[in-house]
Amino acid sequence: MGCINEIMSKHCIPADYEGFLLQVFQDTFHLLQNLTKDNTKNASRNILAEVDDVYVEKFTDFLMLFVIHHLKRFESNAQFPILEFLALLFKYTFQQPTLDGFYSCLDVWNVFLDYLSYKLKNENNNYEMTLNKYKDVLLALSQEILRKLQFRYNQSDLEELDDEDLNDDCFTEWQSFLCQCLEIVSKVSELLPIEIFHLVFSIFEENLRIYFDLEQFLKPSLNNSPLELNVCGENECRRLHCSLRDLSSMLQALGRLVVYMIKTAAPLVLKVDFIEVHAQILATLKAFCYWLTQYVKETKDGNSESSIEKIIAEIAIANIKKRKTQIVVYRSMSNVLVLPWNNVAVDAQQLWPIRSSQHDLLIQSLCEPLRTACSRPNFFQDKLIQERSKPDILWVLQVMCGLIENVSDGSTRTKQVFYKSLQSTISFVESLFHLYLQHSDVTESILEFYLCSSSQLFGIQSRPSICAKNYAEFLDFIFHRKNQVMEFTLNESSSGCKVIEKLLQLLQQVVQEPSSHFKAFLPSTIELCLGQIYPFIAERPSSEVKPPLFELLHNILLHNYRYFFKVNVVNSLGESGNEKIENEQHFTKIMEAYGQSFLQPDIVLFKQNLFSLETLNNKWKLFYKGYFKSVMLFHFLSLLLKTLIYRTHNLLKEEIISTIYNMALVDFNCFYTVFLQQFLQSMENLDTNQKSSLLRNFKRDTDLHSFAESIQRFVSDLRYYCLCTNTSL
User: Fold this and answer.
1) Which of 36, 17, 139 minimizes the C-alpha distance to 74?
2) 534, 585, 547, 579: which is closest to 561 by C-alpha?
3) Confidence class of residue 95 from pLDDT cuts 50, 70 and 90?
4) What local confidence, expressed as pLDDT, does residue 265 receive?
5) DSSP letter string, 628-675
6) Which long-range contacts (CB under 8 A, 24 or more apart) does 72-81 make?
7) What φ, ψ does residue 151 adopt, rounded to 5°?
8) DSSP 41
9) What's the rounded Cα separation, in Å, for the pair 82 and 77?
10) In its keyword annotation, does this UniProt entry include tRNA-binding (predicted)?
11) With b meaning 16 or more CB within 10 Å and e meaning fewer, what string describes 183-218?
12) Is pTM beyond 0.70 here?
């Protein structure tokens, strides 16, 4: 089977071999019949369970290759009965002895459904005829899948599926099984939406009726005691358990199918089942909510305002204790005021001025604890008052960050209204930074606040200079107190490390902004990174601060190219690489930091910076710049080549060779005639003959594939020579 699968994996088969392929498929058809045939003597006997697992796996692979590469070729061939083949595939799927085998068969059906959907999209005149041809197969497949995932019919097998431990995709074994089954049903519903809906809804309705009928089994509560469910019999509990599990599954199925429909105290064993049913009800309503807004109608009741007031009066926000719940309520209140009304087409009727004023009052009231704290007598001098005010300050910052993130996808007008309300709060937050500089939790929250607001509100077009000015003042404050800020890097085991990470993330936003207000901070940002932060962490083998630091350096180079390389008309018309370098010292220090990172064992950082250099070269032709080419190119080539020789980062071998190739591509002649000679001369543990042999055997190819082979041969030969002479690398 392995040999046959190798042949079947070839997509392009000469026409002369189609007869041979047809014979192979016909033989496979008979083999499939034998594997799935019913045993009249022993109806419960499953032939597939007696076949070697590896063989079954190979056979499933064969079916997959057939559907992917060759189904189109033989579907219309009269000598190949396609419907009979699908019927056998159906039996083969549901006779699988293992769950992995069943999943593999579902993958085959998945590919077939993709093929059928594509074919139907290109059928103009024969759409109905083609669909009707496969309709019975698709309905039978969906019906059997729905039967297989129901506890009513398959409880013993389904109970064995783990529903607690999560896999790498954050699914339990049961959730993964359910999702893969429903994915196939969902794909069939694209082709047969009405039929699949009736299949799912009939199961859902049956179990829902049982759920509603439970009301008659509730014992009346006495003295405010909890309600009790009067279902105690073992068989009744088992049937109810199965029904509740199936109701949850069908709710999930309905939620999965909604897009196609719109377009076109119980016993302890039952407690989890009820929770699951309620969770799936909410999840299903969530799926419907998006579509409900498309059909929303205004109420005709003129007394709706008084009704809303009564509801608000009943919901006392002050009584909501959980912080997450509070934030959800505040988000809803903010959304009403800042998001456009869907059913109001004319902008003038959106009542933006009135809503903006109301939103100002909302933000002002939410930020009142922070304002009150700052207004207390001796607040800026008394450490005890500052400590007592921390919970209020942290609460306001968390709420504001939640509201800011909530408008991240909003329109420009929405962000304008929000920023106008937030503007007065920014100055208060800025005044707190120096007071709580030694309190990492508050400092981190303040930086998180600036990070959220900068990433979401920098881009608004209304009064951008004022927005930039507020943040520029905050950055100016940080740079003037950089020695205090840097105390957080001295002890990376402390939570202060997170403060530095947040600061670096904020600066990443700043260096990407085109405004001149922020460009003025570029030199200070580079000095902070390379003069203050980097010296503390440079020699440490690993550091949580390094990735965001180098991400910031990458963004400085990527978004501020003209800070380092001035481009004028004369240069643009001249040869590439003649650009004059500006701020040479800063550029050199950044490149030296990159080089230093390649000498350390942190493979994640190595990969990050290697990708950074490649990105800069693709965007700005970094390797071709005259200064880089004349001063740094050979150093980077030597460093990366030695990395291959020493095998310190062998997992990134292909990426390293690709970067070496792109650097050599700048001037292949110079690479072969100058660099390789200089590099070999620096290898003192090789004799003259060995160096000459290595240089002579290095083929001067210019395509990546051949170059990569030459590099790997060069590295292997060099290591071999060192091994022969017992010299260390």
Assistant:
1) 17
2) 579
3) very high
4) 47
5) IIIIIHHHHHHHHHHHHHHTTTGGGHHHHHHHHHHHHTT-HHHIIIII
6) 72/115, 73/13, 73/18, 73/21, 74/21, 74/22, 74/25, 77/22, 79/22, 79/26, 80/22, 80/25, 80/26, 80/29, 81/29
7) -65, -25
8) S
9) 9
10) no
11) ebbbbbbbbbbebbbebbbebbeebbeeeeebeeee
12) no
Q: Which helix (H) or strand (E) holds 20?
A: helix 18-36
Residue 545: HSE in the Cβ half-sphere, 13 Å Cα cutoff: 27
Which residues are bridge partners to 581 per DSSP?
A: 565
Cα-based angle 41, 43, 49 (whole degrees, multiple of 5): 110
φ and ψ at 660, to 5 degrees? -60, -40
Q: What share of the chain is helix, strand, coil (3-state, %, to 5)?
A: 75, 0, 25
pLDDT digits 0-9 by tens, 530-540:
988 888 888 77
Q: How far apart are CA 586 and CA 65, in angstroms?
A: 56
Distance CA 292, CA 298 (A): 13
Q: Which of 16-25, 363-372, 555-564, 641-650 has the lowest mean pLDDT?
A: 16-25
Q: Is residue 595 within 8 Å of 631, Cβ to Cβ? A: no
Residue 446 exposed, middle or buried by CB count within 10 Å (0-12, 13-18, 19+): buried
pLDDT at 489 over 70: no
Q: For residue 435, what pLDDT is reported?
A: 85
171 phi/psi in degrees, rounded to 5: -120, 145
Cα(718)–Cα(729) distance, integer angstroms: 9
**Token pair belonging to 214:** 């439970």
* Helix (H) and strand (E) counts in the chain: 39, 4
**pLDDT digit string (tens) for 375-412?**
888 888 888 999 999 999 999 999 999 898 888 888 88
Give CA–CA dist 353/201, Å, rounded. 48
Distance (Å, whole) CA 483 – CA 481: 6
What sign does the dihedral 359-362-367-372 (CA atoms) show? positive
Quote the CA–CA distance of 396 and 367 in Å, as a whole number: 6
Rounded to an integer, what distance in angstroms lies between the CA atom of residue 279 and that of residue 236?
A: 23
Distance CA 448, CA 404 (A): 11
In terms of C-beta density within 10 A (0-12 exposed, 13-18 middle, 19 or more buried), how is residue 643 classed? Answer: buried
Q: Which two tokens stand for residue 379?
A: 């607040």
Greatest distance between any 2 Cα atoms in the chain: 100
Task: Say how far apart CA 24 and CA 74 lie, in whole Å.
Answer: 12
> How far is Cα of residue 401 from the mean position of the Cα atoms in its chain?
21
Cα of 647 vs its chain's centroid, Å: 31
Compute the distance between CA of residue 622 and CA of residue 615 in angstroms, rounded to an integer.
Answer: 9
Residue 239, pLDDT score: 87
Reported as half-sphere exposure (CB side, CA atoms, 13 A), residue 581 has a value of 17
Q: Which of 334, 312, 341 is nearest to 400 (CA)?
A: 334
Alpha carbon distance 259, 239 (integer Å): 32
Rounded to 5°, the CA angle 302-306-311 comes to 130
Residue where the block lists tokens 């091994």: 723
Radius of gyration of the chain (CA): 34
HEC letters along 537-600: HCCCCCCCCHHHHHHHHHHHHHHCHHHHEECCHHHHHCCCCCCEECCHHHHHHHHHHHHHHCCC
The answer to whether the Cα torsion of 37, 38, 44, 45 is positive or negative is negative
Q: Do residues 8 and 62 lie in contact, with contact meaning Cβ atoms separated by under 8 Å?
A: yes
- Do residues 697 and 690 lie in contact, with contact meaning Cβ atoms separated by under 8 Å? no
- Dihedral, 633, 634, 635, 636 alpha carbons, nearest 10: 50
- Measure the CA–CA gap between 576 and 311, rounded to whole angstroms: 70
